[in-house]
Every structure is written in structure tokens, then in C-alpha cells.
Design goal:
The protein has about 150 residues and is an all-beta fold. It is built from no helices and 9 strands. The protein has a 7-stranded parallel β-sheet, with no helix packed on it. Strands 5-7 form a two-stranded parallel ribbon.
Length: about 150
Amino acid sequence: MTTLTSLNLACNRISHLPESFERLQALQNLDLSSNRLKSIPEPIMKIKGLKNLDLSYNNITEISPQLVALKHLQVLQLAANNLSKNLPEFFENFTSLIKIDLRFNRIASINSLKHLPALEVITATGNMISVFESAAMSFCQCYLNST
């Protein structure tokens, strides 16, 4: 399984991942949506080549700063979790990020995304965002209407 590049484990009852999961170093696409995760599993953050990560529809309450180890991440989906407050400042380090989906959380600010050079699509409907000022010129789509 060391050559596995895509793995879809959506719609299961996964609440954690074993440490051995980090051995999937060729993995580029990982779908763990609709599971029972309360945090982002540490083994995921050790898969350095990951480009697409879907953690939507879980019970994640906070995002670990260790996530920035995923320097090649292009698509991050965190819709319908239990994220609140402001999106952490370390998000400004996701310079390869093209698309982010933050729908249906309780996020108050996404200003840490405002300088990302590659970011084209932000979907953040159903949050508590009142203002977003971006310096980026590359947006193709930005959806921010609040609940």
C-alpha cells in the first residue's frame, strides 16, 4: 500500500486513525468526510505530499497548528464541523491552497486567508463572518453569506 495515492473512507464511523496510517506517504487525496472525528488525526499531518483533504461532516472543534506541515495542500474541506472563533493565523502559511470549504461552522473571521497567493475559491456560507478584506487578486469564487 505504499503506492496508494487516493483513499476514500467517507461515511464510516471512524473516530481516530492508527499511527501506522502515516506510512501512506504516496497519498495525495484523502476523504474522511462524514465520520466521527473530533480532531484532525496526527498521522494525517505526517503525510507530506497530501494535496486534497476532506474532513467535512465530522465533529472537529479546532485545527491543530501541525496541519501546516502539509505544505502541498491544495484543497481543504472542513464544512459542517464545530469550528468556531477565528480561523487560525497559521493558515497564512498554506501558500499552495487553491480551494477551501468552511461552510456551516461558527467561524467569525477568515482573515488569515487574505494573503494566500494561489487561493481561488473560498466557500464559507453558514458561518458568523461579518467582514472579509482580501489582498488576493486571484479569486474566482468567494461565498460568504452568513446564517
